[in-house]
UniProtKB/TrEMBL annotation:
<dbReference type="InterPro" id="IPR006976">
    <property type="entry name" value="VanZ-like"/>
</dbReference>
<feature type="transmembrane region" description="Helical">
    <location>
        <begin position="137"/>
        <end position="157"/>
    </location>
</feature>
<protein>
    <submittedName>
        <fullName>VanZ family protein</fullName>
    </submittedName>
</protein>
<keyword id="KW-0812">Transmembrane</keyword>
<keyword id="KW-0472">Membrane</keyword>
<dbReference type="InterPro" id="IPR016747">
    <property type="entry name" value="Phosphotransbutyrylase"/>
</dbReference>
<feature type="transmembrane region" description="Helical">
    <location>
        <begin position="99"/>
        <end position="117"/>
    </location>
</feature>
<feature type="transmembrane region" description="Helical">
    <location>
        <begin position="73"/>
        <end position="92"/>
    </location>
</feature>
<keyword id="KW-1133">Transmembrane helix</keyword>
<dbReference type="Pfam" id="PF04892">
    <property type="entry name" value="VanZ"/>
</dbReference>
<feature type="domain" description="VanZ-like">
    <location>
        <begin position="8"/>
        <end position="153"/>
    </location>
</feature>
Length: 170
C-alpha cells in the first residue's frame, strides 16, 4: 500500500489535474487579461512583429492574434510540454517497479501518448476547446523527454548504489 501512495497516487493525481484542466472552457483559462496587465504590449508587438508561422492550420502572429494572445499561445504550448513531461516522469517511476528497463520505457511512453490522445478527444466535448493532433505530438515529446530524464536519473542512481555497495563490501 505504501508503494501505491508513493508511486501511483502521484500519477493518478497528475492525470486528474490534466483531466480537470481540459474540462475547463477557454474563458476560464484565458490568460490575456493577466498578460496585458503585466507585460508591455507595444514592446511585445515590436519584438515579435515579423514572427509568423502556422500551427494546426492556423496562423500564429502578432497581426493575427494580437500581442496578448500571441504570448498566451506560447504559454499554453509550454504547459502542454511541461505537464506531459511530468506525467511521463511519474509514469516511468511507477512502472519501473514492475517491469524491466526496456519495457518500462516503452510502456510509459505508450501510456502517456494514449492519455494525451484521450485528453484531446475529451477536449472535443468541452465548449470553446479544440482538439489538435499537433497538441498530442507536443504532449508526446514532453512525455518522451520526461521519461528519458527519469531513465537517466534512475540509471545514475542505481550505478551510484552499486558503487557504494561495492565499497562497503571491501
Amino acid at each position: 500500500m505504501k508503494k501505491f501512495f508513493i508511486y501511483w497516487l502521484p500519477v493518478i493525481l497528475w492525470a486528474g489535474m490534466i483531466f480537470y484542466a481540459s474540462s475547463q472552457p477557454y474563458e476560464k483559462q484565458d490568460l490575456r487579461p493577466t498578460i496585458s496587465q503585466f507585460l508591455d504590449m507595444d514592446f511585445i508587438s515590436s519584438l515579435f512583429s515579423t514572427t509568423v508561422f502556422n500551427y494546426a492550420g492556423d496562423e500564429v502572429s502578432i497581426e493575427k492574434l494580437g500581442p496578448a494572445q500571441f504570448i498566451e499561445f506560447f504559454i499554453r504550448k509550454g504547459a502542454h510540454f511541461s505537464v506531459y513531461f511530468g506525467l511521463g516522469f511519474l509514469l516511468f517511476r511507477a512502472i519501473k517497479l514492475n517491469l524491466n528497463k526496456g519495457l518500462t520505457f516503452i510502456t510509459s511512453l505508450v501510456l502517456a501518448i494514449l492519455y494525451a490522445a484521450s485528453d484531446e478527444f475529451h477536449q472535443s466535448f468541452t465548449i470553446h476547446r479544440t482538439p489538435h493532433v499537433e497538441d498530442v505530438m507536443l504532449d508526446s515529446i514532453g512525455a518522451l523527454v520526461g521519461i528519458t530524464i527519469a531513465l537517466l536519473i534512475y540509471r545514475n542512481f542505481r550505478r551510484n548504489q552499486t558503487y557504494s555497495n561495492r565499497g562497503m563490501l571491501q
